[in-house]
Specification:
By secondary structure, the chain is α+β, with helices and mostly antiparallel strands. It is built from 13 helices and 21 strands. It is elongated, with a radius of gyration of 30 Å. It comes from Dermatophagoides farinae (American house dust mite). One of its GO terms (molecular function) is cysteine-type peptidase activity.
Length: 516
Amino acid sequence: MKSPVFLLFFVLSASLVLANCSPPTPTFSKNYLISGRIVLPYAEIDEPFTAYYDETANKSRIDYYGDLQLTVQRADLGQFYKIAYMVRNNQQTDRVCFNMEASPISPVTIQSVLPDLSNFQFKQRGICNKLTKSLPTLSSEYCEEWEYRVNLGEKDNKYVFILKRDADGNAIPVFYLMMGYDSLMGSHYDKYEVFYESYWTNKIDPKVFDIYQKYECRGFPGPGKQAAALMNPMREFILNDYGHVDENFNDFNEKHGKNYTNKNKEVNFRRFIFLQNYRFIMAHNRKNLHYQLAVNHLADRTDEEMNRIRGKIQVMNANKGGVPFDKSKYDVSSIPSQWDWRLIGAVTPVKDQAICGSCWSFGATGTIEGQYFVKTGRLLKLSQQQLVDCSWPEDNNGCDGGEDFQTYDYIMKSGGIATEEDYGHYLGVDGKCHDKDVKKSVQIKGFYNITAGDVEAMKVALYYHGPVSIGVDASQKTFTFYSHGIYYDPKCSSKNLDHQVLAVGFGDINGENIGL
């Protein structure tokens, strides 16, 4: 009787040992259709994608934001294709196709959205959402966690992949995390997550890779690696290819004359900020909205630095000293559907406020310049520097922020505002006030407040009196990197107004009011 007991115990022990053994290194199908999301917390991006992959045919396709942007990698033909929406001059939206041929610096390869796990090590097995807090509850399903670490100088990169297994032991992707730590900076320099939401491994219909044939494709503008990254943005995240980022960062530094003090630590830090802003810009442009973003001189600035640059002080009573504007005194019927004071000569050239929170001074001078032009037919360049230097008693704080209505109060008390020629050019820093030593070219008697949200009153004031200084919420990255098009961001607030700009006109496109 003892022998059967011994044999049963032996079988149970063997089963336990097998259960704790590392599972086979995961591999994925050579043909799949998959959908998911790329999340970049530092860049504020959550981008849905759908990918078609046929390794045997040497073809792949990745769609972003539904059908807003389609990218096709035809390695069999040595061609990239990109299909996107474009707004024509008549405001008609059409789909267009771009193509780019392979080159020595930008070879065309098919693009998987699943990493090669051959260097990953098995870590543990457990309930999926307990392996990482990033995952939602997936009932009681079990997952495997695989990890890969690599050290590149001061940078320690950690890659984590979470997967399930089907009944046959085949890997089903669930989650991919990249976390980069820079010991020189003492902080994380990069992080991105890929959530895989569906995975289908049957043969892909070859027609999905021929979608570009519906269009007349034209060459894609732009240099080498940068253009290739636009044609295949997924490459950066799956293959960790940052060549285009380094190329863009070097071009950015050269164009804007950046000269960082600490050549190692600050360069790494600024590159990290640039990387996140660059990703945000590229992801936004893939949405194909009615406006586009572009890298500008602020692309290496942190959110905190941008808050200081905007420079409009938040005040509870922004109507202090102003007279309510009464639109009923004007003939509204004579106002045209479009108006632009720039075309008439009432607006001076745009200036850069530099690293100085003096937007309020530009809004105030722009308003006075324009209304002086309406009254006299002469356009003067008035001095923002006088306002930065001298309006402290009215509670403005120079380069640390101010308000236009406090500026008007100063101008009335001081006897007027001087021209830029008489007072001195704009410096971008707080200077020493010398307003008593210069001629005041323009005086004002008071100012009006236009009721917030009253579009008709705004049009009346603009048309009959000239450009108007307005407060806006400029805290959104879309505002910081705006390039061209009709700007609209639903995240903008009508209460958190942190920037002063100059309204110079208005228009109407397809029944929608637009401001200039």
